[in-house]
Amino acid sequence: MRRHASALLGAVATGALCAITGMAVAADTGPAAAPPTTAPLAAGAQAAPSAAPIDLVKDPRALAALKAMSERLASAKSFTVHARNIVPMAGPNGQWISLIGSARVALQRPDRLFVERGGDQVRMDVYYDGKTLTLYAPDEKLYAEVPAPPTLDGTLNEALDSAESTFPYLEVLLSDPYGVITTDLKGALYVGESSIEGVKTEHLALVSPGVDWEIWIGADDKLPRLVQAKYVQVEKVPTIMTHFYDWKLDAPIPAATFVFEKAAGAQRIEHIRPSATAPVKPASSR
Question: In the prediction, which pLDDT does 171 show?
Answer without folding.
Answer: 80
